[in-house]
Amino acid sequence: MKNQFIVIEGIEGAGKTTAHEAVIAILHEHGINNLIVTREPGGTPLSEKLRILIKHGVDGETVTDKAELLMLYAARVQLLENVIKPALSRGDWVIGDRHDLSSLAYQVGGRGLDIKLVNTLRNMVLGDFRPDLTLYLDVKPEISLQRILTRSKLDRIEQESLCFFERVRNYYLSLVSGDSKIVIIDAQQSLYEVELSLRKILYNWLAGKHL
Ligand code: Z5A
């Protein structure tokens, strides 16, 4: 199999960071060591600055939903053109912590922005570029938010209501069904069981079996 772009998606506390480590370990077991990891928003010096603005805003000023969207795509285009595409061209694998599906789930599903507006930006930034495989970790917000409550400080988006995260999750679920390049994983299982699921999916996928 040639090098691929694999993305891990899900709401906060779904276990993306943990899954990331498992995916890297499984690829290493297959002798795939030429890989880079990315996160969105972020992953280039400019995108990391935008990440701080997206997550924390600026004191005394409301971040509008459209400004949030534009910052996310500005960060994404920097990462795509300066890191992801060059890595894929070199023959490296790319493992992404979030990508474009997040914008559909959060900005369209969660914020309620017009899909036509978001699609205009997607076409401009991504064209027909898509991940080869997306692993979507599905969990009910009431469970995942419990997992992140132990954090000392929640960021601007993490402070949203349970209803917001329910809309995000429902939008994710609507996108996942019917897309053969997105695989859903029950992230309400124990960490051990999630890793077993990832292992099974990736072994089959790497062997070229239908998922
Ligand atoms: N955002 C957006 O709105 N639009 C976009 O287009 C993009 C992003 C790209 C990025 O935040 C924010 O940007 C995010 C969406 C928005 N906003 N929010 N809120 P981030 O990168 O800082 O955070 P995150 O991506 O949401 O990741 P996270 O909060 O760190 O969650 P996670 O990586 O999925 O979870 P984790 O760190 O692996 O696990 C959290 C805890 O749960 C940890 O203690 C684990 O041990 C535990 N855990 C995980 N899985 C399990 C299971 N299965 N059982 C028990 N405990 C578990």
From TrEMBL:
Catalytic activity: dTMP + ATP = dTDP + ADP
Pfam families in UniProt: Thymidylate_kin
E.C. number: 2.7.4.9
Record-linked PROSITE patterns: THYMIDYLATE_KINASE
Keywords of the record: ATP-binding, Kinase, Nucleotide biosynthesis, Nucleotide-binding, Transferase
One GO MF term: ATP binding
Binding-site residues, ATP: 10-17
Cellular component GO terms held in the UniProt record: cytosol
CDD domains associated with the record: TMPK
One GO-annotated biological process of the protein: dTDP biosynthetic process
SUPFAM superfamilies: P-loop containing nucleoside triphosphate hydrolases
UniProt similarity note: Belongs to the thymidylate kinase family.
Known function: Phosphorylation of dTMP to form dTDP in both de novo and salvage pathways of dTTP synthesis.
Protein name: Thymidylate kinase
Organism of provenance: Candidatus Pantoea carbekii
Name of the gene encoding the protein in the UniProt record: tmk
